[in-house]
Amino acid sequence: MSHSVVLSSPATETVQRSCDFTIAICTYDGAGRIPAVLERLRQQLGAQGVRWEVFVIDNNSSDSTEAVVRQYQQNWPSDIPLRYFFEARQGAAYARQLAMEKAKSELVGFLDDDNLPADDWVAAAYAFGQEHPHVGAYGSQIQGEFEGALPDDFHRIQSFFALTQRGDTAHVYQPRLRVLPPSAGLVVRRRAWLNHVPAQLILTGRHDEQMLTGEDLEAITHIRRGNWEIWHNPAMKVWHQIPARRLQRSYLLAFFRGIGLSRHVTRMLSMPFWQRPFMFWVYVANDLGKALHHVLTYRTLLKTHTVSACELQLYLSSLISPFYIWGILIKRRLR
Question: In whole angstroms, how large is the CA radius of gyration of the chain?
Answer without folding.
Answer: 20
